[in-house]
Amino acid sequence: MNTTINVHLNVTVDDNNSDSVYDVPTLILVLLSILYGTISVLAVLGNSLVIWIIVTSKRMHNVTNYYIANLALADIVIGLFAIPFQFQAALLQRWNLPHFMCAFCPFVQILSVNVSVFTLTAIAIDRHRAILKPLSVRPSKLTAKIVIAGIWLVAMVLATPMAVARRVIMVPEGLIWSPTDIDKLKPFCQAVNLSSRTMLIYSMLLAFLQYLTPLSIIFCVYTRMALKLWGNRAPGNAEDFRDANFM
């Protein structure tokens, strides 16, 4: 069976060998591996516990907790599929994992971040409705489930270009490379199926939809809630002397 290898060479051609771009000290590698591994394990265990509590307790079955469970699920996904693999690739400067994961891991990372941000936005809107219109009809559990499904669908669509773009290619080990050093190539995960201009537009679109738009919505609704609560007085007659005795 013939194997086709894509080699991307953006280096200086020279007959001399060279070291890699940078070498990570073993101690730093071990320390960061422990830290990232701990973060990943805690993220999975902690958020799994949150989901388990919400699922097993009927009184926890409400719209807000559904959103919280969805937020926890997104954190579990990023803890399982993004943190460990993206970390090792960044440190080792090569892709030692199965090639399909080159597209899968960045896709999952963007997917999880999108779900988290959109869910936080949904929670903010739900709290805004509860505080500013407390007597209005509360969204049903079915509505919350539909919103959550929509969040995952939109997040998946926005993450798809990254899966399309990323592929494993062979690149030189060092900055200086000679055509005779064919054995000194390494696998590297890189965006090759989409042009640099397309990736720039995609990054700008993500920044707008993933950061600026949710931030604006959350800022506006929480500002309105703060103003509403700040101007409200507690029920009952205020008595300064009585209230001072409770302080």
From TrEMBL:
GO MF annotation: an example: neuropeptide Y receptor activity
Pfam families recorded: 7tm_1
Keywords, sorted A to Z: G-protein coupled receptor, Membrane, Receptor, Transducer, Transmembrane, Transmembrane helix
Subcellular location: Membrane
Gene3D superfamilies, per database record: Rhodopsin 7-helix transmembrane proteins
Keyword match Manganese: no
Domain G-protein coupled receptors family 1 profile: 46-247
Bilayer-crossing regions: 27-55, 67-87, 107-125, 146-165, 200-223
Topology class, membrane: Multi-pass membrane protein
InterPro entries, per database record: GPCR_Rhodpsn (IPR000276), GPCR_Rhodpsn_7TM (IPR017452), NPY_rcpt (IPR000611)
GO annotation, cellular component aspect: plasma membrane
The family this protein is said to belong to: Belongs to the G-protein coupled receptor 1 family.
Protein name as it appears in the record: Neuropeptide Y receptor type 2-like
Organism: Ceratina calcarata
Gene name, Swiss-Prot/TrEMBL: LOC108632221
